[in-house]
Amino acid sequence: MPELPEVETVVRGLRTALPGRSIVAVRLGKTDFIDDPVVLGESLPGRRIAGIERIGKYIHLQLAPDGAGRADSPSHLIVHLGMTGRLVVRAAHEPAPPHTHVFFQLDDGRELRYTDIRRFGRMFLAADAMVADLRGRLGVDALDISAEEFRRRLAGRRARIKALLLDQHVLLGVGNIYADESLWRARLHPARLAAKLSKQEIDRLRHALQRVLGEAIRLRGSSISDFVDSDGQPGGYQRWHRVYGRKGKPCCRCRAMVQRIIVAGRSSHFCPRCQPAPRTRHAASKPRRGKLKRR
DNA sequence: AGCTCTTCCTGAAAGC
DNA sequence: TGCTTTCAGGAAGAGC
Q1: Distance from CA(A266) to C1'(C3), angstroms, rounded
Q2: Is the pTM of this model over 0.85?
Q3: Residues of A forming the active site
């Protein structure tokens, strides 16, 4: 599933292939994941791709100003890969895999293709203001966030740390795999409440997070089920997962059995020995004695 | 504020 | 063996 390292890998690949190319034609299959497929199909032909960047898990294709004089046409194509989305550049004559729903025919005989089995992805055209709005609603990129900013965003939050790591309004780019891997590395239980983490624990978590993300980018992402880069190649970081998908296997640090529980509605993998569970109020509280307050 | 549940979707894996 | 059920999850919205 594409998280920050996978999206970064795709963006770097697209950057070697797309800038300077123009979109000649657009062919669409199923379009229920596209905000306005008609406008997308009509306004992209003739547009030149100027650059590609990553906004969290979003892929942002910047389009050069419209040569046809339609000055008001949106100049940003935003793509979110969801769970199973793939953006691949291929020669136009090569057969496309099943569930390929968008074909951007390029002026060099190749095609940028969007394939998405489950169609959890999103695709839309955006004007400048919409991109600014998107950025404003989202948190700070997990790779860039400073220690101070990370502490500030977790301070006083009574949510579980796992929930906050996944919350794109807090931190950008982290999904289930890298949340679990970072928490293992920082030796923090996923159900710990953010407000109860010490400064040292928060700093340790940020360090673990950025290290895990950096290593994953170096290995071109994790391919669990569907992920491939813009050349169609899988990543390599899945071989280095320490807890994700390792339920029942020994912890790489202490040999205790890796467990899987649901935290914040997400399956969470952790080592019960390295990542001690928070004290629940239940277990800690003494039976109530004396008179109960009337209300 | 933050939790749980639901929805979207398909294919793999588990269960019978 | 072959069918049915369950599960996975990013994000948003509802309801509590």
Answers
A1: 29
A2: yes
A3: 2-3, 57, 266
